[in-house]
Specification:
By secondary structure, this protein is an alpha/beta fold. 20% of the residues lie in helices and 37% in strands.
């Protein structure tokens, strides 16, 4: 018996056909795919009746028809100039629609760094177990990815990587397309890894000018699992700069072991119709440390939703979270950050803050910081603010000969600086500040 969603959402038929095709040819992951697919059909696409999607109504995005990218080859695209980070000395790899061609620029990878296509990794019995994890609760999009993924990036690191790894994700299609990239990073004991990820949607080579920006819809439903082992360190920067027509739903789970450190910096820029970031840090052993920083600039009718979970499971761990948002025009922002402290997680230090600057009268923000604490020897706090330009600050700058729009641009830059200054790599910090400056000054 079909559900209402299966009868009313055009994408459902493609999902069923894509799943049947994969299961028929994929013996090794058949059981995991079937379990995930059954769970997805039970849950369906999330609606505003789901508490975690209360402020993020994706109904309008599901009205379009999509083909699935389960068998589509990667198109030929031109690397956009905007994806190049000036002055960054690192290793660079490019994925097109979730597929890596095996090339690395910036020199040969050092010993101890293993990178494979997921399509290759799942054929290795020693690695296949990383892709069979079925403990995803009620995360419908994660179950959908598990059922349908075909490729992505597998990274395993031993020791310290001498230069950052820049991963550029390019998405391109000539018709509406849904893509399910699956990534796994394993950072072994005492290893260190710095990753700078960026996301762009581009036109296929030879098709420039033939497709209007936003006319073709690309839905990216990605899943990334990061395992940070004992005494490891991961610095992870994400830059989301996809254009209109893109819908980005990203789930990242970080599993941290004893004395590991994970730093995340997520920057969302105007462009993509929908951006939903689910970031979960699970502090599974004692003396782990986590820092989450985010900055989102939304414009037009863009919908940007950041959901975070910091899951303190063991004692003597520390987490700090700071997200800032700038809402322009008719955009909508959502922030839902939860800090969960288990009974055994005594001596936890956890801090969370979300600040928002709403520029337009038609822009909206829903901010919901949460604490759930079941231990009694902890230091935890959270806070949220929503405001507009300070009239005093604008007057102060204008009184010194600065025009109104320039004054507002300076105030936005100062507001964002608290997040961008956290980045450890100067070239990346300068690059992100330049991207931000392209979207300001802003009309009031």
């Amino acid at each position: 018996m079909s559900t209402i969603q299966e009868r009313t959402i055009p994408l459902y038929e493609e999902i069923v056909n894509g799943y049947n095709s994969l299961v028929a040819s994929d013996g090794d992951l058949r059981r995991a795919r079937q379990s995930a697919f059954d769970k997805f059909r039970l849950l369906g696409f999330p609606s505003i009746k789901n508490e975690d999607w209360k402020y993020t109504n994706i109904g309008r995005f599901l009205k379009d028809e999509f083909a699935l990218g389960v068998s589509a080859g990667a198109p030929s695209v031109v690397l956009p100039e905007a994806a190049i980070i000036p002055g960054l000395d690192g290793y660079r790899i490019v994925l097109v629609n979730g597929v890596w061609n095996g090339e690395v620029s910036g020199g040969p990878l050092p010993k101890g760094v293993e990178i494979k296509r997921v399509a290759e990794a799942i054929q290795d019995p020693a690695l296949a177990g990383y892709f069979e994890n079925g403990k995803w609760g009620n995360l419908a999009f994660v179950h959908l990815n598990t059922a349908l993924f075909t490729d992505g990036l597998f990274i395993r690191v031993n020791g310290a990587v001498d230069k950052p790894l820049q991963i550029i994700h390019l998405y391109s299609a000539e018709r509406n397309l849904m893509i399910q990239p699956r990534h796994v990073w394993v950072v072994n004991a005492n290893a260190e890894l710095t990753v700078v990820e960026s996301v762009f949607s581009v036109e296929a080579e030879g098709k420039r000018g033939e497709v209007k920006t936003g006319e073709v819809k690309i839905w990216v439903n990605s899943l990334t699992e990061i395992i940070a082992h004992t005494d490891s360190r991961v610095d992870h920067t994400v830059i989301q700069a996809a254009a209109a027509g893109a819908r980005l739903v990203n789930h990242t789970t970080v599993r941290q072991k004893k004395q590991s450190l994970y730093n995340n910096y997520t920057f969302t820029l105007p462009g993509a119709d929908l951006v939903r970031n689910d970031l979960q840090a699970r502090l599974e052993e004692d003396h782990t440390e986590t820092h989450l920083y985010g900055l989102y600039l939304a414009a037009g009718q863009q919908l940007v939703d950041n959901h975070t979970l910091v899951d303190h499971q063991k004692p003597s761990c520390f987490s700090n979270e700071l997200y800032k948002g700038v809402l322009l025009e008719q955009s909508t922002g959502v922030f839902n950050g939860k800090v969960y402290v288990h009974k055994d997680a005594q001596k936890t230090n956890a801090f969370q803050q979300n600040n928002n600057l709403v520029i337009s009268k038609k822009a909206t923000i829903d901010s919901k910081p949460e604490l759930e604490i079941f231990a009694d020897d902890v230091k935890c706090s959270h806070g949220s603010t929503v405001g507009q330009f300070s009239e005093d600050a604008v007057f102060y700058l204008r009184a010194r000969g600065i025009g109104e729009e320039t004054a507002k641009a300076l105030l936005i830059a100062a507001f964002a600086f608290d997040v961008t200054e956290k980045i450890k790599i100067r070239a990346v910090e300068n690059y992100i500040n330049q991207l931000i400056s392209q979207h300001i000054p802003v009309q009031g």
